[in-house]
Specification:
Blueprint lengths: L3 E17 L2 E14 L4 E6 L9 H11 L5 H4 L6 H18 L3 H4 L8 E2 L2 E3 L4 H10 L5 E5 L5 H11 L4 E5 L6 H13 L2 E5 L19 E3 L9 H4 L5 E4 L1 H4 L2 H14 L2 E4 L6 H11 L4 E2 L17 E2 L2 E2 L9
Parallel strand pairs: 5-6, 6-7, 7-8, 8-9, 9-10, 10-11, 11-12
Antiparallel strand pairs: 1-2, 2-3, 4-14, 13-14
Helix pairs in contact: 1-3, 5-6, 10-11
């Protein structure tokens, strides 16, 4: 029986100010989709992202125009992006509620295991980033937001605050080829394990001819399987986010295609709630780097949130999703 789709915008306060190279925010605005057949109900969440030409209103309009759907297969005719993500994940949740089987079983996957997630430090002055790093120095993996003048001082401050943590960097397209080439040896000396999207996706051809002394991960340059062919020779890893792939269905297919093509796999997220992270836990199984810390950055989460023990993220319970 086809399910009726309804969508609402919800706002969740963040635990402080979160800053990247494109700006700052104090709240996360998400779109929640409910898929109901009159008996069972499934939920999904997406985060509209201006970088990809999305707004809350545009995503709500896409969902309203989608009409009733019965299975996740029905959603695949929509373009990849946030709207399809929320619908796809809501329909998978509905399938699980209808069948009494978890989503991983419906997909023929083994039960998901707990995973270790990175914790993100937002862009700030070196002293502030040093203090935040010290606060989270017990975490095994820290993701550092950079992307501007003074990045080396920031990174050195973080390393001082968290001397034992593994560091990964997200430049959010904020560097030039020259600045990246100058920074790369310093990144190695500070023990950085990976750099994410150092150059704008539109100007990343320069990576093809550059030395890459540490792995470079495509984020803004990688959306779905159609992106992969253009990334060869420029990137070593890809960052899979369900809001980019347009849902769990394509995210799993992209993961398998990336592995077959020889790319390393990172699983990431926009800043959303536990409902947005829950489907990504399935994609994260076996990934080299996992960054599903969105709920840890919020002051308030869903009523039935994911369970975090330090940096260990446990799979969702059915009351949340799946």
């Amino acid at each position: 029986m086809p399910a009726t789709l309804t969508a609402t915008a919800e706002t969740f306060p963040m635990d402080g100010v979160f800053t990247i190279s494109r700006g700052s925010r104090t709240e996360a605005v998400v779109v929640t989709v409910t898929a109901s057949d009159g008996v069972h109900t499934g939920r999904g969440e997406c985060v509209p992202y201006a970088r990809y030409g999305e707004t809350v209103d545009s995503v709500l309009a896409q969902i309203a125009a989608a009409g009733p759907m019965e299975t996740p297969r029905d959603a695949q005719s929509m373009p990849a992006g946030a709207a399809r993500n929320a619908i796809d994940c809501a329909l998978w949740d509905l399938e699980a509620k209808r069948s009494g089987e978890p989503v991983h079983a419906l997909l023929g996957l083994p039960p998901p295991a707990p995973i270790t997630t990175a914790y993100t430090l937002s862009l700030g002055e070196p002293d502030a980033m040093r203090a935040k790093a010290a606060e989270h120095a017990h975490r095994p993996l820290l993701k550092i937001k950079l992307g501007g003048t003074g990045d080396l001082a920031r990174l050195r401050a973080v390393r001082e605050g968290a001397p034992d943590a593994t560091l990964i960097i997200d430049a959010n397209e904020g560097w030039t080829p020259d600045s990246y080439a100058a920074l790369a040896p310093e990144l190695l000396s500070l023990g950085v394990a990976m750099v994410e999207q150092p150059l704008p996706a539109s100007d990343d051809e320069a990576l093809r001819g550059m030395d890459r002394p540490l792995p470079v991960c495509a984020d803004e340059a990688c959306h779905d399987r159609a992106s992969l062919s253009a990334l060869r020779g420029k990137y070593d890893m890809i960052n899979i986010k369900l809001d980019k792939t347009g849902g769990l269905t394509e995210a799993l297919a992209l993961r398998d295609a990336a592995v077959e093509a020889g790319f390393g796999v990172m699983i990431g997220c926009m800043v959303g709630t536990s409902l947005a992270m829950a489907p990504a836990v399935l994609v994260a199984q076996g990934a080299q780097i996992i960054d599903l810390d969105g709920p840890l950055l919020l002051a308030k989460d869903r009523d039935t949130p994911l369970t975090f023990e330090g940096s260990t993220l446990h799979p969702p319970v059915p009351a949340l999703w799946g």
